[in-house]
Automatic annotation (TrEMBL), chain A:
Gene3D superfamilies: 3.40.50.2300. The keyword Methyltransferase does not apply. This is PTS sugar transporter subunit IIB. Residues 2-89 form the PTS EIIB type-2 domain. CDD domains: PTS_IIB_ascorbate (cd05563). InterPro entries: PTS_EIIB-like_sf, PTS_EIIB_2, PTS_EIIB_2/3. Transmembrane segments: none annotated. It comes from the Bacteria.
UniProtKB/TrEMBL annotation, chain B:
GO terms for biological process: phosphoenolpyruvate-dependent sugar phosphotransferase system. Keywords: Cell membrane, Membrane, Phosphotransferase system, Sugar transport, Transmembrane, Transmembrane helix, Transport. Belongs to the UlaA family. This is Ascorbate-specific PTS system EIIC component.
Length: 89, 418
């Protein structure tokens, strides 16, 4: 199962909302994945198949190895679907 | 048996755990998720208290050094810190007010045109805590306190997003969500100032901001650095030998100050971890209920949700707000108020948001002026608020964001009339 880590500055509010949107999108697609949320500081020691968050936030995780995808509107299912689909297979 | 029930109903951790349990059952979650989620929620409350202990240690040290250096009381606004401290004293009342506030929010969103569901759970908790602190300091009895506090909280949860919505639409370019964050008065001010200085100027997004400032988004690191700078500054002013003689047990004052700064940051990190556990079961349940019961409900989200719409305004807003905070630090003691040491978390999150709102209505000039005024507000309001917090006013920390100050002061004013 793929693991998706959602990241924001504090790991409290916007990452959790994005996690709820991602879960809704995954449900629509009929795909199951392990989705979690955390803050940027903790994310640096996490392993996941995809790191998702605001473009400026996830760029802080860019080490050339991690898979990153940015989302601007965390409530927009179309944007979230487009961002995560390439990483699900 | 009655004692058993009372023990449960008066323990905030267990109370919040019960609420999470109800939410999980309502969502028809799997048995394993129900048990896990309930325990995680209670665990969050316990972790919160542990983080507070760590935070207090370094906060006390900071105050001792600051007092010795300037002969003034320095206060660092930190919502997480003051809430964690307050929950020891008024935890169960806060839990009841928070739960009741969420219920009132759902009722108001269902039956009034204000269709907002406030999903920033940690701010709901902080506001519940502020309301209880102010009402508690006035000597109100518990039943009146919980009922009126819950109604007030529920009202704020729909009114504040609604007030901001005309500006929020300008920021996001659509109407898909609202801003649910209790720095609203600062953002309103920024939006209005932006409108006043006009849209003729260029947008913040037309300029290049150095990527080297992006580490500021990492709050744990940026907070540790800022606290280290603050500790070094007050340590030098107090004299290194004072610290080595009185506080550090002979350890070099710079090493000691650096360690204290990191301890402060670690305390906040632990508190945040606790809040995260606490909130992450309750908010989805709250949203689940609203999705089922309230047609056309609009989610009111935490402020970073709007950051991607104007990333440059985020950095500019933080810097200008911080400058406002630094200037205010010198003005407050001159007019007889407590010294508010600019706190990094409030200036980053609310300054950035004020910057984004100011930019949406008034371009670069709106962003600069709007967030600067936000910076002044989040120094003067906490300084004025301290007197309203009763015994909590002496804790060395206070609520940072504007709405806590405005609501706290208004409540105190209203109580005085009666």
């Amino acid at each position: 199962m793929k693991k998706i880590m959602i990241v924001c500055g504090n790991g409290l509010g916007s990452s959790m909302m994005l996690e709820m949107t991602v879960n809704a999108v995954l449900k629509e697609m009929g795909v199951s994945a392990d989705v979690r949320h955390t803050d940027l500081f903790s994310a640096k020691s996490e392993i996941a198949d995809l790191f998702l968050g605001a473009p400026e936030i996830v760029s802080g995780l860019n080490d050339g190895v991690r898979q990153l995808a940015g989302v601007r509107n965390i409530m927009d299912k179309t944007e979230v679907r487009a961002a995560i689909t390439p990483y699900l297979n | 048996m009655i004692k058993f029930a009372l023990d449960i109903l008066s323990d905030p951790a267990i109370l919040i755990g019960l609420f999470a349990l109800c939410g999980l059952l309502l969502q028809k979650a799997k048995v394993s998720d129900v048990i896990g989620g309930t325990i995680k929620t209670i665990l969050g409350f316990v972790i919160l208290g542990a983080g507070a202990q760590i935070l207090i240690g370094s906060l006390d040290t900071f105050r001792l050094v600051f007092d010795h250096a300037f002969g003034l009381k320095g206060t660092i606004p930190n919502n997480e810190g003051i809430t964690a401290l307050a929950l020891k004293e008024i935890g169960s009342q806060t839990a009841y007010v928070m739960i009741l506030g969420m219920v009132f929010n759902l009722v108001l969103a269902r039956f009034t045109p204000l269709k907002y569901v406030f999903l920033t759970g940690h701010h709901t908790l902080f506001m519940a805590c502020l309301i209880v602190a102010v009402l508690h300091a006035s000597g109100m009895d518990n039943v009146t306190l919980v009922l009126s506090g819950g109604a007030l909280l529920g009202g704020l949860m729909v009114v504040m997003p609604a007030l901001l919505q005309p500006f929020t639409r300008k920021v996001t370019g659509n109407d898909s969500f609202a801003l649910g964050h209790f720095g609203s008065f600062g953002y309103l001010a920024a939006g209005l100032i932006g409108s006043a200085v006009g849209k003729k100027g260029r947008s913040t997004e037309d300029i290049k901001v150095p990527a080297s400032l992006s580490f500021l988004r990492d709050t744990s690191i940026s907070m540790a650095l800022t606290m280290a700078i603050l500790f070094f500054a007050v340590s030098v002013a107090a004299g290194g030998d004072f610290i080595e003689r009185e506080l550090s047990g002979g350890v070099n004052f710079l090493v000691y100050g650096f360690k204290q700064a990191l301890t402060f940051s670690a305390g906040v990190y632990i508190i945040l971890a606790g809040v995260r556990l606490l909130i992450s079961e309750i908010v989805p349940a709250f949203k689940g209920i609203s999705d089922k019961l309230i047609p056309n409900a609009k989610p009111a989200l935490d402020c970073p949700a709007i950051f991607p719409f104007a990333p440059n305004a985020v950095v500019i807003g933080f810097l200008c707000s911080f400058i406002g905070g630094l200037i205010a630090m010198f003005i407050t003691p001159a007019i007889g108020l407590a010294v508010i040491v600019p706190g990094l978390i409030p200036h980053f999150f609310t300054g950035a948001t004020a910057g984004v709102y100011g930019n949406a209505t008034g371009g670069l000039r709106g962003a600069i002026l709007g967030s600067f005024v936000n910076g002044l507000l989040i120094s003067f309001l906490p300084a004025l608020l301290l007197g309203s917090l009763g015994s909590l006013g002496f804790a060395g920390t206070t609520f940072g964001d504007t709405d806590f100050g405005v609501i706290g002061l208004l409540l105190t004013g209203i109580i005085r009339v009666f």
